[in-house]
Amino acid sequence: MAPADYKVKFKELKSRVGIDDVAYSLGYRLDRKAGVGRYIELVLGEGRDKRDTIIVSNRRDKASQTFFRRDGSKGDVVSFIRENLSSFNVIGLTEWQKIAKVMAQFANMPEPDYDRDRDYVRSASAPQVFDPSRYRVKDLDAANIPRLFAQRGLSADTVKALAPFISLVSDRRNENFNGYNIGFPYTEAGSDKTVGYEIRGMGGYKSKAAGTNSSTAAWVADLSHGNNGLVRHVFFCESAFDAMAFFQMNRPRLGEDFALVSLGGTFSDRQVLGVMERFPNARAYDCFDNDLAGRINGLRLMALVEDIPLKITKTPEGLMVEAKGKSFPVSPDRSAYTQFEPHISVRYRMGQWQPPKDFKDWNDCLLGKRSSIKILPTKHDRDDNLAEQRASGLKI
């Protein structure tokens, strides 16, 4: 059977994307006065300017979530995204292509690659602009660390070391919650100006500040104290908590000439290229998750760092990669980079420092939370890891 282009399936995505996830990103807020049980009410707008209210069922089971309004309208997450499709900065020849791309972004999976719409990407409308006046911002007080960090296994020493790159933020438009969440500020190359936040809160709450620039900006913790030219290692993670966990678990081996980066899940090319522009003498490291999406992210990172045009397709056995006129399989159970290198010359030798094989990500590793499906190390993995450690120049 010929490999099909890597495209996500709606059923699979619905198990990972909740109506509440999408609603929160659009500015809806939980109405606690209506109760928090099997059903929750999410409200758009504030005070007398309430523009919409949806009632969401099965809040703990994303795959089963549905919504309805008191006027009788109802649907699932696909229906809800379809209603609000104009609010998302996606391009596609059909409505369903656009919906699939939106769901892939929320599911932290690669966007479907529809060959025919590539020429339309550059004509995309500008995303919503981040408005810093919407958020109250405080510095993180090292003497009063939010307990969410401890819940994620992060020590006080780790938080204090990274405190200059963390803020506390509160959305002025959220009338149902006037407290502060943890904000990881996004910045662009050559500027200290904050252009958005990766936000985490209690109860598993996660989002980005409205209008966050996820196209050219990222969370970057430069541990070289501003000496960008001295940074030799840039560690890319899918979330700021993963980056902090990686830092905590490997701190004795890292030295001081490095930077931590969170791309906030699905990333754009300019996010990666912008980070590497900041650190012209650095080597990029793939610290992404141990799952299919993480393997694809790692391949994309390598292709960008090495400037290698790349196409990834899904097969029953794993992935098929096409680059420089060659086509070869890549197993998701092994290091993608070391499977790529024998076929395509990689001059820069991008590094990998992924979580141990039986953990999904670095934060799960810190918490001792093993994956339900383990990717067991093989002899190839052990050889690859040993070769990588010898070549990396880092202490072992």
Describe the structure.
There is one protein chain. The chain has 396 residues and is an alpha+beta fold. It contains twelve helices and 19 strands. The chain has helices spanning 10-14, 19-25, 77-83, 95-106, 147-151, 156-162, 240-254, 269-278, 292-306, 336-340, 362-367, 379-392; strands at residues 4-5, 29-30, 39-44, 52-57, 66-68, 74-75, 135-139, 167-171, 181-185, 197-200, 206-208, 219-222, 233-237, 258-262, 283-286, 311-315, 318-323, 326-330, 351-352. It has a five-stranded antiparallel beta sheet with strand order 2-3-4-5-6. α8 (269-278) crosses α9. The longest helix is centred in the middle third of the chain and has 15 residues, at 240-254. It starts with a strand and ends with a helix.
Give the tags:
5-stranded antiparallel beta sheet, 396 residues, disordered N terminus, 19 strands, 20% strand, globular
In short:
By secondary structure, the chain is α+β, with helices and mostly antiparallel strands.
Largest sheet: 5 strands, antiparallel
Stretches where pLDDT falls below 50 for ≥5 residues? 1-8, 115-127, 373-381, 388-396
In total, the number of strands is: 19
Q: Give the overall form.
A: globular
The Cα radius of gyration reads 21 Å
> What is the SS-derived class?
alpha+beta
Oligomer: single chain
Query: Helix count?
Result: 12
Q: Which bin fits the share of residues in helices?
A: 25-40%
Question: For the terminal residues, how far apart are their CA atoms?
Answer: 44 Å
Enumerate the strands of the largest sheet in spatial order, edge to edge or round the barrel: 2-3-4-5-6
Strand proportion, as a percent range, falls in 15-25%
What do the pLDDT scores average to? 82
Protein name: Toprim domain-containing protein
